[in-house]
Amino acid sequence: MDRPLGALSGLLAVLLALPVLLPPDAHADVPTLASGSQPITLPTDAPTTFRLHRTATGSTFHVGLWYVGAGDSVGEGVRLTIGTTRADTGCGSGAVFRPTRGEPAPLLTTTASTWTDQPDHPCGTAAELYVTVGLPSDPVDRGRAATLVVEEEPPLSTYAYDLLPEPAEPTWQPVEPDPSPQPVLAGTTPDDAPVVGPGSHEVALRPGRQAVLAVPVDWDQDLRAEVDGSAAASVTVLGPLLGEDVAASGPGWAQSHVTSYLHRNSFDPTRAGASLAGEHYVLVGLPPEAAPATVSVTLAVDGVPADGVPDYTGRADAAPEPSAEPADAPDDDSAPAPIWIGAGALVVLVAVLLTRRAGRDRGR
Asked: Who's near 125: CB < 8 A, 6+ residues apart?
């Protein structure tokens, strides 16, 4: 009669239970970001990570973040990073931090880009990247609604990059207001900003708040904005992915850089939004102590698209396949997956049974 396996049976039961006892894939709960705008909630106790899936090798991801802060703070802000793993921040980063005393609803923005001038750099070739939104610096902003804006820019060959001309440095010229500006209901965020063109626009301003207008600006073009009707008004310009784009500014006016792909190779933070064509955002505000005012915002777009238009290589015929291994695998690369532990246990059991049976057969 065959003897029971005894302790071996208990060991087998434990081994077979391991797929249930071991934790699931730590990346399974990472949501994927698509191109465009996506509402999120700011982290409450730990940074939040999202996944980007690259559709063309060599493409560049641009990611912007905006939210309306609680306001009246000694310092509000957040950090945004991009990496090839959840723990990595080396592909791009951005942050905003500023006091918001007297501002009841400050618009806070930041941006990050994965652009690199090295064709084989992992940040430009990895099939998947990870975007991490840090904890807001002011606890009252944690858990607030926010928006991530994503754009995957097609690849540009080194040859095409070398052909791009250096952008001209714009020179400020005052913008003449129209005698009859067109009334427009300005937005308060990039999401609800009306798209307007050159000319004068009548805008109502409230103290401590930003009025936002969206203006299409193409390659080789720059934008001028000037306010009439309040000496206290301030103006700034943001690029399509919410990076600052201010070549020059003064009381009641601002001018963007000439839009050029080459600006991304600069460490100048005022050029962060100048390297992409698309809708730029004009932010007009009044200080908290000012009186409400109805002003005329006059816009001018200078230049025409020419040699500075990038000659993209387009989307790849086949997108790179994600790696079969987690992006940030455990330190012990030999650690077996749960399913193989269970399968291994079965193999051990069968081998033991066959060995014991063969021994009995020889002893007869």
From this structure: 57, 58, 320
Beta-bridged to residue 250, according to DSSP, are: 253
Cα 198 versus chain centre, distance: 29
Res 233: pLDDT: 97
10 Å Cβ neighbour count for 260? 26
Distance between CA atoms of residues 109 and 189, nearest Å:
10
Say what the pLDDT of residue 314 is.
Answer: 64
- The structure tokens listed for 283 are 């932010």
- The string of DSSP letters for 80-145 reads EEEESSTT--TTEEEEEEE--TT-SS-EEEEEEE---S-TT-HHHH-SEEEEEEPPPSSGGGTT-E
Question: How crowded is residue 18: how many other Cβ atoms within 10 Å of its Cβ?
Answer: 16
- Say how far apart CA 33 and CA 240 lie, in whole Å: 17
Q: Give mean pLDDT, residues 182-198.
A: 98
Beta bridge partners of 204: 294
**Side-chain half-sphere CA neighbours of 316 within 13 A:** 17
